[in-house]
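Whiteboard transcription, Tuesday session. T.W. wrote the structure tokens on the left side:
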């Protein structure tokens, strides 16, 4: 999967990583949770050589 993503990015495609959370809890908590989830996925991609 990471090789295919790297190939697409090298061809000029871009990748947007967005985190989501449920409606339960406060808005601030859910925004932070969404950001942390997106950052965790981005870290996995970076650790596997995908340029972001």
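and on the right, the sequence the group agreed on:
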């Amino acid at each position: 999967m990471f090789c295919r993503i790297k190939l697409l990015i090298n061809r000029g495609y871009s990748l947007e990583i967005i985190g989501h959370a449920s409606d339960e809890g406060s808005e601030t908590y859910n925004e932070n949770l969404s950001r942390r989830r997106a950052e965790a996925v981005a870290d996995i991609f970076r650790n596997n050589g995908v340029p972001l």
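Someone added at the bottom: The mean pLDDT is 93.
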